[in-house]
Amino acid sequence: MTATKRIALSSVGLAFALTGCAALPGGGSIPDASAPITQDEAQIGAEAHPQLLAEFGGAMTGSQAQYVEQVGKNIAVQSGLGNARESFTISLLNSSVNNAFAIPGGYVYTTRQLVSLMNNEAELAGVLGHEVGHVAARHSQRRQKTASQNQILGVLGAIASSVLLGDTGIGQQLGQLSLQGAQLFTLSYSRRQETEADNLGITYLGRAGYDPRAMGTVLASLAAQNALDARLQGRDSARLPEWASTHPDPASRVQAVLQQTQGMTGVVNRDSFLTRIDGLIYGDDPKQGVIEGRQFIHPDLRLSFTAPQGFYMINGTREVSISGQSGKAVFSLAPYNGNLNAYVQSVFSALSQQQQITPSNIQTRTVNGLPAAFGTARVNNGQSQVDVTVFAYEFANDRAYHFLAITPAGQASTFNQMYSSVRRISTQEAAQVVPRVLDVITVRSGDTVSSLSRRMAYSTAQEERFRVLNGLGANDQLQAGQKVKIVIRGS
User: Fold this and answer.
1) Residue 180 pLDDT > 60, yes or no?
2) How many angstroms separate the CA atoms of 235 and 218, rounded?
3) Whole-angstrom Cα distance, residue 131 to residue 126?
4) What per-residue string of b and e applies to 411-439 under the rule 16 or more CB within 10 Å gives b?
5) Highest mean pLDDT pick, 63-77, 148-162, 250-264
6) Which of 149, 171, 395, 451 is most buried (CB neighbours < 10 A)?
7) Quick one: signal sequence residues (predicted)?
């Protein structure tokens, strides 16, 4: 979560005729090579690009970003689009979630976290090739023409919608307003379009000389990471909820891709890839705040709070989401004029699109020396009711933060302990928050999965994290001379 203000993404019209496509044996299609990115498509992407960068932590710079850009442009050339190298913009995002996506105009994005999960250059090319495939096949245009003539960006996340409150009533309203940009880019594609993009990515890999099987191995790593995250967060299912995934569950696509690429070969460039990503930030960037167990701590904003037992948090660029079986919340900020009561009321007012949402009263108190105000409203949600709570804190005359929480009716006290945990942190505490980074090392004689796992900068699930990070199965062992990744504390 950064201190930047909420950005409203503009709606952009889509009115394109689909270009002719040539069928592929794998079920995908490649647009006619004579159909480059159009001026209208380029304009749409150019207008959305700076807003997406802001939503997703910004574009990284330096040698690692340049490397990702180079691989992305090299794979984009394989799409057959005219002027592909010049027409595509490839961005490495400073985001701690595993995600990659593309928008019209040749704008392709991948997060540093997803790159950290990869184990060779062919996997990086496969992910970027999949996204290039979406652009080449004009999937955004097809999807939005079916669903909405006016938007390419859809909703940038929600704490409610299908997750908490169903798909009707207040759930949709809160889903539109409670954004979790860095995690929740939800321009969804159909299964057929995802399969087509997989097939296109496989074709591009083969044309570029990469091992096409890399498309399957990176999906397998992503599925393994999803399963591990689910277990660590106490979720019942390894599948990411719809609001937290750009693409369908990767586990459901692994076997199809592996079967399709069986027997294919090519280069993977493992060691050179690992050398190029050495030192990449892993997990939360302290500039956006970090999650340590149940604690969120932001050294730049000088604040901290603790989630309730049994809840897990996801740190986004603008908000922190807190999720559990008995409720969900986001921690964020809004414009503040020095009046906390008015601030709380303004958050409620922003939710009142289809029905008036007004707290019964707004109370004030002091929390760990911070002026605070809060209110709760009982809201009809279809055939049931929920309690919506706004709890706000003043950190300066012109700066305030708040929780927006939703619980089943009568259970608004679920988050009371969290509300009471908000506090300022000292300069000394802030200085102790350092990032985790990737450290690429060479396995020596006598090193084992167990011994290297103990060097991971985590207090739990060290071996599981190490295996998933390096694409190792439960029975895979290490060989002397092999390069592997560990996660250590940076400086």
Assistant:
1) no
2) 23
3) 9
4) ebebbeebbebbbebeeeebeebebbbbb
5) 63-77
6) 171
7) 1-22
Element (H, E) at 275: helix 270-277
- Give the pLDDT confidence score for residue 134 in this predicted structure: 87
Strand residue runs (E) in 254-342: 281-282, 290-292, 295-298, 303-306, 312-315, 320-324, 327-333
- Is 288-431 CATH 3.30.70.270? no
- Spell out a b/e string for 306-337, using b for 16 or more CB atoms within 10 Å of the CB, else e: bbbeebbbbbbbbbbbbbbeebbbbbbbbebe
Q: Which amino acid is at 313?
A: M
3-state secondary structure of 272: helix
How many angstroms separate the CA atoms of 319 and 288, rounded?
A: 9
Model-level pTM? 0.82
Task: Please give the DSSP secondary-structure letter assigned to residue 250.
Answer: T
Q: Which residues have C-beta within 8 Å of that of residue 129, sequence separation ≥ 6?
A: 75, 78, 200, 201, 202, 204, 205, 215
What is the DSSP track for 135-152? HHTTHHHHHHHHH-TT-S
Side chain identity at 393, as an amino acid letter? Y
Domain residue spans in the chain? 21-152+187-281, 288-431, 436-489
Element (DSSP H or E) covering residue 123:
helix 121-136
- The candidate with the shortest Cα–Cα distance to 59, out of 106, 99, 108, 92, is 92
In tens, the pLDDT along 188-212 reads: 566 777 778 888 888 999 999 999 9
pLDDT of amino acid 159 = 28
Give the span between the Cα atoms of 111 and 322, in whole angstroms.
22
Amino acid found at 490: G
3-state secondary structure of 240: coil
pLDDT tens profile 303-361 = 999 999 999 998 887 889 999 888 999 999 999 999 999 999 999 998 876 567 889 89
| 139 closest CA partner among 227, 246, 255, 260 | 246
DSSP β-ladder status, 89-93 and 107-111? parallel
Helix, strand or coil, per DSSP, at residue 30? strand
